[in-house]
Amino acid sequence: xxxxxxxxxxxIGAGPAGLGAALAAREAGLEEIFLLExxxxxxxxxxxxxxxxxxxxxxxxxxxxxxxxxRFIDKVERSGIEVFLDTMVLELRSDRSLVAVNSRDxxxxxxxxxxxxxxxxxxxxxxxxxxxxxxxxxxxxAGAAQRYINIEGLMPGRRVVILGSGDIGLIMAxxxxxxxxxxxxxxxxxxxPGGLTRNLVQCxxxxxxxxxxxxxxxxxxGRKRVEAVTVAKVNENRKPIPGTERLVECDTxxxxxxxxxENELSKKAGVVLHPATGGxxxxxxxxTSVEGIFACGNVVCVFxxxxxxxxxxxxxxxxxxxxxxGRRRWRGEVxxxxxxNVRFVVPQRLRCLDRxxxxxxxxxxxxxxxxxxxxVDGRVVHSRKARMVRPPEMVRASIPAGALNEGxxxxxxxxxxxxxxx
Amino acid sequence: xxxxxxxxxxxxPLSCTVELFEENGEVQEVRGNECAVGEKYxxxxxxxxxxxxxxxxxxxxxxxxVVPVATSAPVPKRLVREVVRALAGVExxxxxxxxxxxxxDILGTGVDVVTTRPLPAKRD
Lengths: 422, 124
Ligand SMILES: Cc1cc2nc3c(=O)[nH]c(=O)nc-3n(C[C@H](O)[C@H](O)[C@H](O)COP(=O)(O)OP(=O)(O)OC[C@H]3O[C@@H](n4cnc5c(N)ncnc54)[C@H](O)[C@@H]3O)c2cc1C
Ligand code: SF4
Hints:
The complex is a heterodimer of chains A (422) and B (124). Chain A is α/β, with parallel strands linked by helices and 422 residues long. Helices cover 20% and strands 32% of the residues of chain A. Chain A folds into three domains: 1-123 and 259-328, FAD/NAD(P)-binding domain (3-Layer(bba) Sandwich), CATH 3.50.50; 125-257, 3-Layer(bba) Sandwich (FAD/NAD(P)-binding domain); 330-422, Immunoglobulin-like, CATH 2.60.40. Chain A has a five-stranded parallel β-sheet with strand order 6-3-2-10-21, with helices on one face. Chain A has a five-stranded parallel β-sheet with strand order 12-19-13-14-15. A five-stranded mixed β-sheet of chain A has the order 24-22-29-26-27, with no helix packed on it. Chain A is globular. In chain B, the strands form three sheets. Chain B has a five-stranded mixed β-sheet with strand order 8-5-6-10-9, with no helix packed on it. The radius of gyration of chain B is 19 Å and the shape is elongated. Chain B folds into two domains: 2-47; 54-115, CPE0013-like fold (Roll), CATH 3.10.530.10. The longest helix of chain B is centred in the middle third of the chain and has 12 residues, at 36-47. Chain A binds chain B through residues 40-41, 47, 50-52, 62, 64, 66-67, 69-70, 149-153, 178-179, 196-198, 200-202, 205-206, 368, 386-390, 393, and chain B through 8-10, 12-15, 34, 51-52, 54-56, 58, 63-66, 68, 70, 77, 80-81, 84, 98, 116-118.
């Protein structure tokens, strides 16, 4: 029989979310914290994100991904947090017991006081996009291409077509170009770009890489290796328009078609997921529907800023400590509802009702000159002007301390046209 | 001759298209920006656009074959490709420290190229 380990808390995944949560739990007084990571080193996705643009809110400084990660790694190494590398969590149950494996210890069984989910997200693949054609080599996800080039030091291709204009695709367009490959173009099925303007300018315009909006790839040619793709213009229903097809020779098709939270473990533990985010439903401590299981970072919803990942990690780490120390008290159950032009809000519900709460949300459509408002039973508790809101950019709002109590029925987050001219 | 140059301001989600008018290199007028940040941005992008360059260099004997590097400050935009080319032949020996200078004063810009992570040596 393998011995059962009983630490105060187990954190699954050591990206910025897991690193931040473990540190916060430690600072809040937990003694024994295990940080479990399947990769050979700490940092999650950040070691491969070698470009800069990380940390402007947390550190008031623009860092590269590895630099951002290193600040937390250094702290974790000095903290007494027990790190398990090359360790994969295979199973988590609703009583928080879990099974992990690595080559040094074999099978590890744990029954921690609290669990923090920090598994990040994974890329949508071609199966979820469904492009007809053969299944040749040379079709690759943007994040995988990033890993090949920036971690393994390998070039996946020489003549590249990119499908999807999300930030990772744009960043890889520049990266391939700098490494001497030719990026023929970026094709986006929507009529607006998916990534940030900063990346459109600095990754595409700077290198004269064309962006084709309302276009998609309709066929992949080549049996062993990609030889070409057919691209076509699409109509307003995103269906290819006959007669607009064009053959583009290339040896590599890079897919940048979105990320989805990685929740195989969460599902098996009975954690309730939210249809709009793809991640666990959480409260203001980032506690999921299963008691003592917390979640933070991209496993909850795809945050575009690593700073927000770190903020949610601090909340989850402190929440886990409160739970283990028997201090966590629920005073009610208040839903947080998306109102006008809001697609989803995290957290989705509030139960402690005793503190200031940061809310993160996405809008449904772009809108100019708006006011972001938070209403507690119809009373405005937060109102802020914004020049513009766009679906790719997460928006932040907050509920001030003292605005909540046991009697509150609902909180609504809405975006309304700004009537008062400033 | 008066000429127009278009820039997209990257400083907030509004993404204003800013038009800059110039005659013989002298900025005369900036239009289309909804706030002062956009004017400053367009003028800088016209007169002296700079970028921080990030890439990787080879490492011998490390746990990974490459280490990420960056210019310690932004360099003129027109030099971005040249910076990457100048680093293509560089090979470091592990272990590599964080912030280790890989190439000082690259292309005479006064800016150093430094590593952005530590890379331990491979144990065998
Ligand atoms: C390609 C790319 C580019 C980006 N660019 C930017 C940018 O320019 N600026 C910015 O602010 N943000 C950027 N982001 C976003 C930012 O990097 C992420 O938001 C952040 O890394 C998410 O952190 P995380 O800890 O939630 O997930 P991750 O960093 O993905 O970490 C999750 C960790 O969990 C581990 N794990 C998963 N399952 C298991 C298991 N079963 N057992 C053990 N370990 C497990 C994984 O190995 C991984 O290390 C980018 C993201 C990507 C993917
Ligand atoms: S000019 Fe001002 S309002 Fe327009 S994008 Fe730039 S910062 Fe935003």
